[in-house]
Amino acid sequence: MVSNCLNLRVSSSHPNIFLANSKNPKLSKSNSLTLSPSTKLNKTNHVLNHSMSYNVSMRYSNSKVHFSSPKFEIEPDPTLINDDLKPTTPSQRTFSGLEMASLWVGLVVGVPSYYLAGSLVDLGMAWWQGIATVVAANMILFVPLVLTGHPGTRYGISFPVLARSSFGIHGAHIPTLLRALVGCGWYGIETWIGAPANALVNLSPMLFTFRRGAILTAFLGIVFQPWKLLKSSESFVYTWLVGYSALMGPIGGIILVDYYLVKKTNLSVEDLYSRNPYGAYYYSRGFNVAAILALVVGIIPVIPGLFYWITSSLRSKPDESAAVGDSLLHNPK
Asked: Which end of the chain is more exposed for a tag (fewer CB within 10 A), N or C?
């Protein structure tokens, strides 16, 4: 058993730390060693920019190196982090394959999914066309779902935190607020509360906990008047589904392009929780102007049509009960 200290440099094979030692001992497959280096990593390609201490446990076996989770030397900004926004560690990821599959089945096999296919049939499609449309749409959606899931799997961060890397520490409030509004609307339809509560937590981690965010979302869900969104197939498909897609589509596109093409999947997790003006994601006073402009350009073209459908949907029409009541008032006999 040997104890040694290594100098680590940044490469592209691991999300947090990367081995390339300048004093690399000659190792054979039969050797094993335990290392406890204190490393100082410089910012390279937005990967790491602060001094970080790692307790690294390494075993050289079959050309594989095993690391424990890193510990940050610099404390995160308390206004940007709480227990709900912290990155998850590998030990906290306890879902089995069956549990993950059950989660997705539960998301798909629900009343809103049935309502979507039924709405398409109501709009003129045959039953098999409605089902085929939903299946085809989910197959297409599978690609961006996998792509957006990569940073969560690799770094253990949620959507509100990931948005900071593209929109800036403060600019991330824009996509998270939009995401929260969409979640509130879905809450009114299917009591889906997880994502909007998380998004509200990101706005003020010191003020909001997940529970408080969930309670606020419950009240806001009523404001969306889901009974109006579901009163007809047109309002559900054209107002709700098309409406929130117009908001979330550009956000997803910006984050994916930034993460894969600009940052090459390399993020500094530490900078995602820092207000340091020299941090990788502080940009211009916490806002990435380019990302915000791209979001505006992506949303503006759909605003007129969306506004038309929203106003049309909110125009109340007297229902049958109101008509009966009116007839009784004017014709008591």
From this structure: C
